[in-house]
Amino acid sequence: MAAAVPLILLLRSDANTTVVEAEPLPFNFLRAQATSFPVRIDPSPEPPAPMVRFAFPPHRTRTADRQSVRSTLNSAGAFMLRAASVTVASHPIPEWLRARYHSHAVVSINCLLFQYWPAGGRVRGSRWFRIESKKTFAPPKEVHVQVTHSMPPQKMEIFQSLDGWARDNLLLHLKPVEKCWQPQDFLPDPASDGFHDEVKELRERAKEIPDDYLVCLVGDMITEEALPTYQTMLNTLDGVRDETGASPTAWAVWTRAWTAEENRHGDLLNKYLYLTGRVDMRQIEKTIQYLIGSGMDPRTENNPYLGFIYTSFQERATFISHGNTARHAKDFGDLKLAQICGIIASDEKRHETAYTKIVEKLFEIDPDGTVLALADMMRKKIAMPAHLMFDGQDEKLFDHFSMVAQRLGVYTARDYADILEFLVGRWKVPELTGLSGEGHKAQDYLCTLAGRIRKLDERAQSRAKQAGKMPFSWVYGREVQM
């Protein structure tokens, strides 16, 4: 017999993972598309607040066999969860319940509470049912509208013709493996009889390092550990990607060898921090996994013009950051850590030289297209590689880490302006001639941008002085001044 069954869905914000707890009841209404339901959202006193009620109008259902309902309970609950989250996203709801898409979560709503009663509008023997779904790893949030393959096809020929140039001018900035330093060169030797004494000495030195510096060092290390993402990004670029995984082109050889050299940076910092005993390695390891799974959104559009401008900027940024952490380590009396950060900075400087050479060559071949690409990247702003950083707790972890780095002078908005000014001078942007109308506008924009950024930084500095403290899971939840 058919019956009109009003359904009340109640959702709450819950990040835990539990099992389904419910009794059988008809689920035929789930065959309808959730987005077709008109939804009324209002506060509900039952069960405990904070709650929001989604009142769906009655739908005709038929009493289902209890056994078959039991077997479909899990899938029905999962459907309800997805349906509700889709519906909720288009309606104004309280901040605590707002669906927040991120690299690490499906939505913040993953618990459904619903009430069922027979037709007639009278609540007779009503029961509450609770369904929670397992949290799966979701794709990263798309921070910006995604643009792909923006380089005109005819410009592919430029990069194909530059393979010989890259072989002669790019690969010389790589070091032979046998002449490269390795992480073990700077760490206690586990095969040595003095290993335990060396570790003890390292830990004694590390006791003098303050938490805010550790946060910066950990943030830098996590950024380095997301290397798979950066190789992936380079291999999205049209005309220069490694098409086979072992391509012999100079562009592909560079990408693989650059990745291999960079791999030592995260390894060394990771092992050093592990030996200090000062940081929560499990929280750090979670952050690394979240970050690699999240990817990054550099807005390079598969376009090697944009991609190599981005890498030129980023290599100089990491050179500056590691150089500043080396200086701080020396101030704190840890000369070994200063040496570690310094040797990493020297690698970044060498890589910066290689990437800036590529863009310099593009300015020589195609000045108009390259200056437009540089202006485009600067208007979009250079996103830091770890901007999707998350530790399972702090939704704004990267922002908070950046604020600490800004306060300590590890990497600042002034550094950002200095990098831009350096690159504009390195590539002789003010001296470009023969540009189109749009090219001249881009040139004017770039030549004055660094000064404008510095003025904005001065205002931001005064606001930053009012920032409070923030707990960081990397240092066992201890609070750090922002």
Automatic annotation (TrEMBL):
Protein's UniProt keywords contain Transit peptide: yes
Database matches in Pfam families: FA_desaturase_2
Obligatory cofactor(s): Fe(2+)
Subcellular location: Plastid, Chloroplast
Coiled coil region boundaries: none
Keywords: Chloroplast, Fatty acid biosynthesis, Fatty acid metabolism, Iron, Lipid biosynthesis, Lipid metabolism, Metal-binding, Oxidoreductase, Plastid, Transit peptide
Pathway: Lipid metabolism; fatty acid metabolism
GO biological process: fatty acid biosynthetic process
UniProt keyword annotation of Membrane present: no
Main location: plastid
Family under the similarity heading: Belongs to the fatty acid desaturase type 2 family.
Subunit note: Homodimer.
Listed name of the protein: Acyl-[acyl-carrier-protein] desaturase 2, chloroplastic
UniProt source species: Triticum urartu (Red wild einkorn)
